[in-house]
Design goal:
7-stranded mixed sheet
Length: about 950
Amino acid sequence: MIKKLALLLLLFSSFLHAQHKTQIIAHLDSDKDVLTINQKLEIYNNSDVTWDHIMLLDWANAFSSNQTPLATRFAEDFKNRFQFAIDEDRGSTTFTATDSLTNDYRLERLKGHQDIIKLYFKKPLPAGATREVEINYAVKIPEDDFTGYGKSSNGEYSLKYWYLHPAPFIEGKWDYYSHKDLDDFYGAPMDFSVSLHLPVTHRAISSLTTGLETKQTQRNSYLFTGEQLDAAVLHLVRNTDAFKTYSVPGINVITDIEDLDVPLEMKVIFNDRIASFLQSRLGSFPEKDLFVSDRYYRENPVYGLSSLPSFINPFPAGFTYEIKMLKTLSRKWVERGIHVNPREEAWVKQSIMIYLMMEYQQLYYPDLKIGGKLSDVWGIRGFNVAQLKFNESYPLLYLNSARLNLDEAINTPADQLVKYNQQLGMPFKAAIGLRFLNDYLGDDSLEKSIRAFYLENQQGRTKASVFRHILDKNASKNTDWFFDDYITTHKRLDWKINQVKKTADSVFFRIKNKSQLQIPVPVYLLDKDSIITKKWIEGVKEDSLISLPRKRANRIAINYEQLIAEFNPRDNYKTLKGFPSLNRPLEFRLFKDVEDPERSQVFLMPDVEFNIYDGLTLGTRFYNGNLLPKPARYSIKPGYGTNSNRLVGSISFGYAHPVQNRDERLYEVKYGVSANTFSYADDLLYRRASGWLQFNYRPKDLRKNKRQSLSFRNIYVDRDRDPLNSVNEPDYNVFSINYSQSDDNLKRVFNYHIGTEVSSNFTKATYRLRWRKLFKDNRQLDFRVFGGAFLTNNSQASGNFFSFALDRPTDYLFDYNYYGRSEDSGLFSQQLVVAEGGFKSQLEPAFANEWITTANASYSIWNYIHAYGDIGFVKNKGRDAKFVYDSGIRLNFLQDYFELYFPIYSNNGWEIAQDNYDEKIRFIVTLDINTFVKLFTRRWY
């Protein structure tokens, strides 16, 4: 009986620890950047069902073409490096046929998932059984420019996804997904034995344990081992001296993260302090060695702070090194001990990691400001942003998402988040929520729960629901609001104080909950800036009446300590003395800054504009825009034209009303008015006033680049009369309705526009379509169609001012950024705005007062050199339609921002052989910095 019991215990013990195992023999050919691999997989069916197949992750093959999910992700983010790479720089996995491949199992790549393999068993694998398969294959290593992993320019290799790894089988199904450069590899726990053979020029460092290292004349050989790991990282370097080992309590930290300005003794102190902090907050690291590389850090860096050069580094000695190590070790500690699905529940690990960083900074650097030592320098210390404490940067960066109406639910899968939210917005929002929760609980229950969650789930897969269950057991207050509202909704948090009544000993006021989420909120009674009373108010869904003893308070406030990132904190304060207008006194500040919610701020910014008639327009912009976007905006820009010697400028008032119901496609409603005056010719001014209403639509999935808009505008223009060239209609009013749709990414651009304009003397309709395609051979075809027709036209007396233009629109609505809009000769007459006809050559007839239809196309010949051609028909009243065409060479240095056009042949004949050819060259140059910046921000939003 005892023997039988012992046998059962032994079997039960083996069941608990049984898992997949792999033996890998790999040889590196550094001349071809190829790893030749023989891999034996011992598959253990740890489920209660029979398997007829398993899923293998082959993320090395994600680089095999520009049609993989990884390549599609790059295109969505407008990353062109991979799209334009040659095949030799990409990666792939190639299998070698063997007897076992044909007799024991069959491999099949999933359609649309080139980096996922379905391995079919000839004989199904029963529950609790094991089976060994042997696979031979070669992995072509890609360049590291694409994801940071691969072959570097100096011939070293950082390898993360270089072998076949079984996917986890959870709750009756295989849990897998493709590589999308999100650093979220999700493999089943596996025991490793890796025999690695390298040229003598290279040595190996690994996240696995080094069991054996042999140096020979022709090659270096290694044996690496590891247990219960879900990844194996290799660094094949020419010199391992870059990696150093720091022995800290409980573990050895192995890293090549370096800072030559920090002495070794300080590095030891920092690493010891960080490790001790993480051990106290989470628990011991589950392995003897903790391996983190600089590549690993750069996957998820401390944006904007850790890359400052030493000669302008304003932080305490060694701080940038310390924060690098803090971020890296915190991330590794959490990832190694908390095994949630890193794509579906990414927020769990990210929130805990950032929360620990915030707690560490609060413990050791409580008074450190974002600007460091610069915060005390004259000229800088007056800025609010320079006085923010380090931890206050997290809500600031998150609020950028909320103010742009790009806030998403924290529990959104990582691959469905826009890049900014995936990298910054949602991790910071989640960590801020944990700090808010901790302050609300008022004890150590959150700290205990995080530690228990870490220690109790190190050996297996877990979920966010497990963390919630642990917290429910430890917390003395209800925390359902955190998981049910804060984590699961994109609605922005916002409260407001109104209806204040006061007596000598009490104060009564209402809290308006604009978000209607039942999240607790702290209210305060203040004596100037000193907190007299702090009270948490729970269950405020819409409006609640609050009563507090007044004591000596002279102000009341909501969220005074800014524990939570609130959308609009400007209405959180009420004075109990004096006049209500003193709630937020007026303040003027130079340059953009972080908003002070206790003041009404007007920002002043030097402003420079240019056209050849006014010259440089020097002025000052008065506006309410700060470092974060806001719905209501005004801008007043008076300026002085250095050439015209006139006062010119603009004024605008607008409101962008965000629509938070993501079930509806309507995303935003904008409306406003504006007016501006500038010179349109020498000594001639135009005055333009406009009012607009615009409805913007965007899919529920914010990662999709599809956009739609419906706009209504009314434009009134008044122009100075030119006594030498009088116009019959110097003043006019135009009402327009426009609908547009676009769906752009790096591989394909498609957009179209339908519009109509109505004036007293004409009515016209227009249609515009643009299609741009990047082909597999990296050549590009750009195609545009324009059609326009007058429905009524009584404006012929005004010449061609309102007519459709073949090559250079008159821009009677003053929408385009012409530097010399009235020029007929000279350099500025050669500025090209691709609008209306879109031609590059100056042909006759140059205008159409009845209808026009054109097509513009270009095709890349080599790199940025394109061939272009335009064709069309121009119809004027009383004349037959005329067929027009032109062609030439386009130098596309920066699409739509800096381009040159060289005409070759057109209706005018061989233009390249004609006199004054330099006057025929056309150019596109954009000087507007905001337009240029969109090139880079589009991949983040």
